[in-house]
Amino acid sequence: MATKELTFQDVAEHNTKKDLYIVVHDVIYDATKFVDEHPGGEEVLLDVAGQDATEAFEDVGHSDEARETLEQLKVGTLKRNPGDPKPKSATTGAVAAAGQTQSAGAGVGLYAVVAIGGLLAFGAYQYLQQQQ
């Protein structure tokens, strides 16, 4: 099958259960035949029908098998025109993940400081009690 090049407007016309296209990483897939088989239910696909589903697809963390199935549904590539929504960049996700890691580290550090401070306060209290 020859690969088509479609615009967002072309893809947007395929937004029903009987005719459903999605875009993932600027590749267009015809998910019409897969709607009833989708493990997450048809609603998940219908929510992103005729749209860029990259973020939703990646947020779920699909398996290698799911990615292979997706490849079998490939129709073509997305031709971006001026004014089309910008794709979410991979670096944005990496930066966000790094930020979450640093935040988690700061949370653990804060608990450590509070725990150590509590132990020091308890030790000081015990010391002062013995002095009296």
UniProtKB/TrEMBL annotation:
Keywords: Electron transport, Endoplasmic reticulum, Heme, Iron, Membrane, Metal-binding, Microsome, Transmembrane, Transmembrane helix, Transport. Pfam families: Cyt-b5. It comes from the Eukaryota. It is found in: Endoplasmic reticulum membrane; Microsome membrane. Residues 3-79 form the Cytochrome b5 heme-binding domain. Residues 77-97 are annotated as: Disordered. Signal peptide: none annotated. GO terms for molecular function: heme binding; metal ion binding. The lineage of its organism: Eukaryota, Fungi, Dikarya, Ascomycota, Pezizomycotina. It is a single-pass membrane protein. SUPFAM superfamilies: Cytochrome b5-like heme/steroid binding domain. One of its GO terms (cellular component) is endoplasmic reticulum membrane. Its main location: endoplasmic reticulum. This is Cytochrome b5. The chain crosses the membrane at residues 108-128. GO terms for biological process: sterol biosynthetic process. Belongs to the cytochrome b5 family.
